[in-house]
Amino acid sequence: MPGPTVVCAQCGELYQQAGRGNGDWFHFMVVEMHRRPDGQTQITGHWRSGDWMDGMSLVLRTRDGRRLAITGAQMEPPLNSACEARGQRRLVAPELGLVQSSGCIHAAR
């Protein structure tokens, strides 16, 4: 059964708690971003809700109001079952440049 609808403290968007894979818009809260040796950006955070498909069009909304389009991102498998249950995941995206590491990523609408 889906969880309650809550307001994201990072971006103010509504999402259905524990609603991963529920057919809703993808919502991912960013915790940390860094550049990998291969030049790609690794984004660590929490998959809050919605459906995921590798390569889907995404938008990073930073706390300072900027929007950055992300294309070609891939989601890595969870590290273990506890991470899976909490929605902790890593996305790997092409180089994003200098980007503030707080905010949320949403499916492009």
Description:
The protein has 109 residues and is mainly beta. The protein is 6% helix and 45% strand. It is built from one helix and ten strands. It has one helix spanning 81-86, and strands spanning 5-7, 14-16, 19-20, 27-35, 41-50, 58-62, 67-70, 74-75, 88-93, 103-107. The strands form two sheets. Strands 3, 4, 5, 6, 7, 8, 9 and 10 form an eight-stranded mixed sheet that branches. The protein has a two-stranded antiparallel ribbon with strand order 1-2. The longest helix has 6 residues, at 81-86. The radius of gyration is 13 Å and the shape is globular. The two termini are 26 Å apart.
What's the topology here?
Layout: E1 5-7, E2 14-16, E3 19-20, E4 27-35, E5 41-50, E6 58-62, E7 67-70, E8 74-75, H1 81-86, E9 88-93, E10 103-107
Parallel strand pairs: 3-5
Antiparallel strand pairs: 1-2, 4-5, 4-10, 5-9, 6-7, 6-10, 8-9
In short:
With 109 residues, the chain is mainly beta.
List keywords for this structure.
two-stranded antiparallel sheet, mainly beta, 1 helix, eight-stranded mixed beta sheet, 6% helix, 109 residues
Structural class based on helices, strands and sheet pairing: mainly beta
Distance between the termini: 26 Å
Largest sheet: 8 strands, mixed
Radius of gyration: 13 Å
Q: List SSEs in N-to-C order.
A: EEEEEEEEHEE
Q: Quickly count the helices.
A: 1
Compute the number of strand runs: 10
Taking pLDDT < 50 over at least 5 consecutive residues as the criterion, the unreliable ranges are: none
Query: What percent strand?
Result: 35-45%
Label the overall shape.
globular
Report helical residue fraction: under 10%
Average of per-residue pLDDT values: 86
